[in-house]
Amino acid sequence: MTRSRASTITRRSLLIGGIGVVAAGATAEAVNLDLLPGRSTMYRVLGLNGADGTIPDVDPVPSVSGTFVSASRNGRTVGWTIAAPASDTPLPVAVALHGYGDDHASFFGRELGWDRFLAAHIADGGAPFAIASIDGGNRYWHHRSDGDDPAAMVVDEFLPRIARRGFDTDRLALTGYSMGGFGALRLGGVLGASRVRAVSAISPALWTSAADTARGAFDDAADFRANTVLGRQRALDGVAVRVDCGNGDGFAPAVHTYVDGFDAPPAGGFEPGAHTHGYWRRLAPQQLAFLARHLGR
């Protein structure tokens, strides 16, 4: 009797477990198709985001850091870092724009480790270039109604400083993650192909309407309409574009809409991943290879 009861419980457990597996698969597909809310949470709970990237165990390329008082940012003192290998000739530059809540240092060291990813890239035979990052605050890399303009700071103040240090700012790329991904796409479109060779955006913070935006991302609906990159893909004509986003990222639906707006699909794509440093580290080797390829032409 006990054996029969145990067998019944086992069969019931297996049946429930099987239903659970089917339900999980169906739920994942529904979330993927945006039929259910809570995209980011559901992908995380179901373990659909893939493995985190690992910073290479190599010595980083040399870097130099400093500060200056930015007139474009209403007199704020901003920090910056340039990471680059030694070179006898001027190296091209990728200006890297950080995400919300981060700063120029977030691209390097233990957070994203791009100074080590760049060293590994070069050791594997990749073309060398410099990575230059600067503090943009949480202002979404465009002019704000209070006069703060981190985009103007990049163009009018940071790029001349990079050039004075011997780097070739005529061979320029823009890259960034989250808020910085939006900033790279927007600024790349503003400057155009005459100034920018490549734009690489990782998990860009995009919205399809002003009503959906995060608080503080834009001054108001008019500011959103003036600065959104959706509908302005042609501004990047002649610029090599790469856009990557994790399927479990809350921004993925808007990023899909943005990517679909190109006449020819940009490089990159969608794969398991969340809006996390772990995903951004996993994409770093591909991002750096893309930038190097187009900066070297």
UniProtKB/TrEMBL annotation:
Kindly give the PROSITE patterns that the UniProt entry links to this protein. TAT
Q: Which Gene3D superfamilies match?
A: alpha/beta hydrolase
Q: Mind listing the UniProt keywords for this protein, alphabetically?
A: Hydrolase
Tell me yes or no: is Methyltransferase among this UniProt entry's keywords: no
* Keyword Heme applies: no
* Residues making up the signal peptide according to the UniProt record: none
Identify this protein by name.
Answer: Alpha/beta hydrolase-fold protein
Q: Which organism is it from?
A: Curtobacterium citreum
